[in-house]
Design brief:
This protein has 202 residues and is an alpha/beta fold. Helix content is 39%, strand content 17%. It has 9 helices and 6 strands. Strands 3-2-1-4-5-6 form a 6-stranded parallel sheet, with helices on both faces. β1, α1 and β2 (32-37) form a beta-alpha-beta unit. α3 (84-94) packs parallel to α5 (118-124). The protein is globular and about 50 Å long. It starts with a strand and ends with a helix.
Length: 202
């Protein structure tokens, strides 16, 4: 089985977290995708987030109509940074036969050598890198460690082209906070209702 994992703060989840992942699923042939909301993303120190339980609930609501996508609470330990390496090793220990693909954007791919125990991540998982129009691997290759270039040469990286979704969680939080109009299709309707019911960003 091919399993994709896709982590993030999802504060809130929106179409930019859904449409590209569907593209990656098709391109790589993933049987299932596991969304992993993080309680405290290590790369966003000091930022305030909606409560982790709220973000988990939003992801659940967003994935109700996605039969191959599900959400996991593995990385929601309060007050503890969530490291991707711990998740991929846990998945591999649970089922050694599963083929794991870490789904990440082009910018995160370039930053991967700064991640905690990144070498162990690429030992366990392949990468499905979501690239925007104009993104070119050759333009970033020179800035990568030789070990990263070797991972690409070994065929463990699938570059998946996709059109950018013109919305961000930052913009959406502002719109919810100020009562602005949410662009149609930007956020699943059940998530919009949930945010408004509990006034998450007011």
């Amino acid at each position: 089985m091919k399993l994709g994992i896709f982590g993030g703060s999802f504060d809130p989840i929106h179409s930019g977290h859904l449409v590209p992942v569907r593209k990656a699923q098709q391109a790589v042939g993933l049987d299932r995708v596991l969304y992993l909301p993080t309680a405290r993303p290590p790369h966003k120190p000091g930022r305030q987030f909606a409560r982790s339980q709220r973000r988990f609930a939003m992801v659940e609501l967003a994935l109700l109509d996605e039969p191959d996508f599900e959400v996991s609470a593995w990385e929601l330990t309060p007050g503890v940074p969530a490291y991707t390496v711990d998740t991929v090793e846990r998945l591999r220990h649970r089922d050694p036969s599963v083929e794991i693909f870490l789904i990440l954007g082009g910018d995160s791919f370039k930053q991967l050598p700064t991640w905690h125990r990144w070498r162990d991540i690429v030992k366990v998982a392949s990468l499905a890198v979501l690239t925007r129009p104009g993104w070119d691997y050759q333009s970033v290759e020179r800035g990568l460690p030789e070990e990263m270039r070797d991972v690409v040469a070994q065929g463990k990286v699938a570059f998946v082209g996709n059109d950018p979704v013109q919305i961000s969680s930052t913009e959406l939080r502002h719109l919810f906070r100020t009562g602005g109009e949410i662009p149609k299709g930007a956020v699943p309707e059940l998530v919009v209702k949930y945010i408004r019911k509990y006034a998450l960003y007011r």
